[in-house]
UniProtKB/TrEMBL annotation:
<keyword id="KW-0501">Molybdenum cofactor biosynthesis</keyword>
<dbReference type="InterPro" id="IPR036688">
    <property type="entry name" value="MoeA_C_domain_IV_sf"/>
</dbReference>
<keyword id="KW-0479">Metal-binding</keyword>
<dbReference type="GO" id="GO:0005829">
    <property type="term" value="C:cytosol"/>
</dbReference>
<dbReference type="Pfam" id="PF03453">
    <property type="entry name" value="MoeA_N"/>
</dbReference>
<dbReference type="GO" id="GO:0061599">
    <property type="term" value="F:molybdopterin molybdotransferase activity"/>
</dbReference>
<protein>
    <recommendedName>
        <fullName>Molybdopterin molybdenumtransferase</fullName>
        <ecNumber>2.10.1.1</ecNumber>
    </recommendedName>
</protein>
<dbReference type="Pfam" id="PF00994">
    <property type="entry name" value="MoCF_biosynth"/>
</dbReference>
<comment type="similarity">
    <text>Belongs to the MoeA family.</text>
</comment>
<dbReference type="InterPro" id="IPR005110">
    <property type="entry name" value="MoeA_linker/N"/>
</dbReference>
<feature type="region of interest" description="Disordered">
    <location>
        <begin position="125"/>
        <end position="152"/>
    </location>
</feature>
<dbReference type="InterPro" id="IPR036135">
    <property type="entry name" value="MoeA_linker/N_sf"/>
</dbReference>
<dbReference type="InterPro" id="IPR036425">
    <property type="entry name" value="MoaB/Mog-like_dom_sf"/>
</dbReference>
<dbReference type="InterPro" id="IPR005111">
    <property type="entry name" value="MoeA_C_domain_IV"/>
</dbReference>
<keyword id="KW-0500">Molybdenum</keyword>
<dbReference type="InterPro" id="IPR001453">
    <property type="entry name" value="MoaB/Mog_dom"/>
</dbReference>
<dbReference type="GO" id="GO:0006777">
    <property type="term" value="P:Mo-molybdopterin cofactor biosynthetic process"/>
</dbReference>
Length: 419
């Protein structure tokens, strides 16, 4: 994978846009190279985190022979004289004499000396209180290490933690796990034309990204407080530089909205140059959203931070999130590079010439098909609100009915599984 960067003094006209797939590979690689440190966290607090170390068992699973049924642990042939009872959580005495039995509950430890477990529903009691019946030929208990041996690796580092992983870790005897620290994010909203309340009017538009982007970032696993959302930042170079400097003191990733081109009030590129940033990606050959960027800033402490420049048009900004921010964050937490699912197109989707087309689609999960939605202009959010993701139409092609194409899912809630 290419990981070259260019200084932020380089203008957009000085380099060709990166291909969409190349850009994703590049930002994932720089994220992985700057993977966040491991932290120790209680199991109750790690849903949505990522394993920093392999998950191994602290003991055999199960740790002792465990009855699979309610019944009788017997020794020798019947009928058997009842000499006790063992419940889950107890440690039974061994069965030392043939013709004896103890009542046993599901999940209880099987006494040593047991030759069979007789199911309660297949047993009878004799007049003298003994137990009789015919045990099944197979063992009715779980053997130690049947699920896993002590020290066995169950899940590799980089595994996303969900409730199933938490339960498995608990069953292995863990109270805490080492996980990657979650990325800290900030959002800077640029644009003097933006309103933060009420309907748009008199040439000013309502800021839709300030309330929206933080929610997407949290769904990608970022930590982001209300105080980390700043704006609208005044359209001056001085204000842009000051806002970026402040955000970069605490955030691993700073997202900005608007200002990614080279218009009269687009100050992001000069601000990045003043901060000594390097471009990882400076524009991407994708529609919508091509003027997106990702830059890398090395702080005085030597730690790498990132700035993701999202276009000001709302749908384009979300395209930038799924295209650049998602793979970057995947690398930062040490997960494997994302592999996109594929679906079958139920309706045609046009191409965009030499650019990759990310087309909003609605998924039919039963049929495994996708259909494009309406109202998909780069400044529109109506289509996005009814979509499940973006169909990927590669450069120089179109999507015909029946074609199998990759799909970029919209970010899920923490713990949810992808399509």
């Amino acid at each position: 994978m290419r990981t070259e960067t260019a200084p932020a003094t380089e203008g957009a006209a000085a380099s060709l846009p990166a291909g969409w797939e190349e850009a994703r590979s590049r930002v994932y690689a720089v994220g992985l190279a700057a993977a966040l440190p491991a932290v120790e966290r209680p199991l109750a607090d790690i849903d949505g985190y990522t394993l920093a170390e392999p998950l191994t068992t602290r003991t055999d699973l199960p740790a002792f022979p465990t009855s699979s049924v309610d019944g009788w642990a017997v020794r020798g042939t019947g009928p058997w004289r009842v000499v006790g009872r063992v419940l889950a959580g107890g440690t039974p005495a061994p069965l030392t004499e043939d013709g004896t039995t103890v009542e046993i509950a599901t999940g209880a430890m099987v006494p040593s000396g047991t030759t069979a477990v007789l199911r309660v529903e297949e047993s009878t009691r004799t007049a003298d209180g003994s137990v009789d019946g015919v045990p099944r030929s197979g063992p009715e208990w779980r053997r130690p290490g049947e699920e896993a041996a002590a020290g066995e690796e169950l899940l590799p580092a980089g595994t996303p933690v969900d409730p199933a992983v938490i339960g498995l870790a608990a069953s292995c005897g863990h109270d805490t796990l080492r996980v990657r620290r979650q990325p800290r994010a900030a959002l800077l909203v640029f644009g003097d034309e933006l309103l933060t309340a009420g309907p748009p009017a008199a040439g000013r538009v309502r800021d839709a990204l300030g309330p929206t982007v933080p929610s997407w970032l949290r769904r990608y696993g970022c930590q982001l407080r209300p105080a980390d959302v700043v704006g609208p930042v005044a359209d001056t170079l001085t204000d842009h530089v000051a806002a970026l400097r402040t955000a970069l003191t605490h955030a691993d990733l700073v997202c900005t909205t608007g200002g990614t081109m080279h218009g009269p009030v687009d100050h992001l590129h000069p601000a990045l140059a003043e901060l000594g940033a390097d471009y990882v990606v400076n524009t991407v050959a994708v529609r919508p959203g091509f003027p997106m960027l990702l830059a890398r800033v090395v702080g005085d402490d030597g730690r790498v931070r990132f700035v993701a420049g999202l276009p000001g048009n709302p749908q384009s900004a979300v395209v930038a999130l799924v295209s650049l921010v998602a793979p970057l964050l995947t690398g930062l937490v040490g997960r494997a590079a994302p592999v996109l699912p594929h679906v079958t197109l139920a309706e045609p989707v046009p191409g965009r010439g030499d650019h990759t087309h990310l087309a909003l689609v609605r998924l039919d999960r039963v049929a495994g098909t996708a259909r494009p939605v309406q109202h998909v202009g780069s400044a529109m959010l109506r289509g996005l609100s009814g979509a499940d993701g973006f169909a990927v139409i590669r450069p120089g092609s179109t999507g015909a009915v029946g074609d199998r194409v990759p799909v970029v899912p919209l970010p899920l809630l923490p713990g949810e599984r992808a399509w």
